[in-house]
């Protein structure tokens, strides 16, 4: 299983990025959930990944990992903060959103939130990039 993940890690990371991008567009364009400031910052990290990882996976360019990993880590940290801000009300008071939708607004009204979904996507991308950065041993 590790060899499969190593061989197709870029493809798996790309699929996660595309699904996350399409999911964010679905939430904002179809369901009309207005993105907050932190959502936009997460999108700034995710959207380029869906393009860059797709090109790199198609070309087999594993060197993209050193460029994609910082975007995924920064996006993951923003998603982590956003998730914590929604789950711990006192954190939302430290740096409140002053324009548009409050960052602690929970559109899904449950345990799983949109920033938590983004965090899961960034974590999966980081894992797939870390595992898929090298060629499988049998090649």
Automatic annotation (TrEMBL):
Keyword Manganese recorded: no
SUPFAM superfamilies, per the entry: DsbB-like
Transmembrane parts of this sequence: 9-28, 40-58, 65-84, 111-131
Signal peptide: none
Domain of life where this protein originates: Bacteria
UniProt keyword annotation of Nucleus present: no
Subcellular location: Membrane
Keywords linked to the UniProt accession: Chaperone, Disulfide bond, Electron transport, Membrane, Oxidoreductase, Redox-active center, Transmembrane, Transmembrane helix, Transport
Any Pfam family the entry gives: DsbB
Matching InterPro entries: DiS_bond_form_DsbB/BdbC, Disulphide_bond_form_BdbC, DsbB-like_sf
Annotated membrane topology: Multi-pass membrane protein
Homology family: Belongs to the DsbB family. BdbC subfamily.
NCBIfam families linked: PRK03113.1 (NF002849)
PANTHER family per UniProt: DISULFIDE FORMATION PROTEIN-RELATED (PTHR43469), SPBETA PROPHAGE-DERIVED DISULFIDE BOND FORMATION PROTEIN B (PTHR43469:SF1)
Protein name according to UniProt: Disulfide oxidoreductase
Native source organism of the sequence: Paenibacillus chartarius
């Amino acid at each position: 299983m590790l060899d499969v993940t190593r061989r197709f890690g870029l493809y798996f990371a790309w699929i996660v990025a595309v699904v996350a991008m399409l999911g964010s567009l679905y939430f904002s364009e179809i369901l009309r959930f207005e993105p907050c400031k932190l959502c936009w910052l997460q999108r700034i990290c995710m959207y380029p990944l869906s393009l860059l990882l797709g090109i790199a996976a198609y070309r087999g360019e594993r060197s993209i990992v050193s460029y994609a990993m910082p975007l995924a880590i920064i996006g993951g940290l923003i998603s982590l903060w956003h998730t914590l801000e929604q789950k711990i009300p006192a954190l939302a008071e430290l740096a409140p959103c002053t324009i548009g939708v409050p960052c602690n607004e929970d559109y899904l009204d449950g345990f799983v939130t949109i920033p938590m979904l983004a965090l899961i996507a960034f974590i999966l991308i980081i894992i797939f990039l870390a595992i898929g950065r090298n060629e499988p041993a049998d090649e």
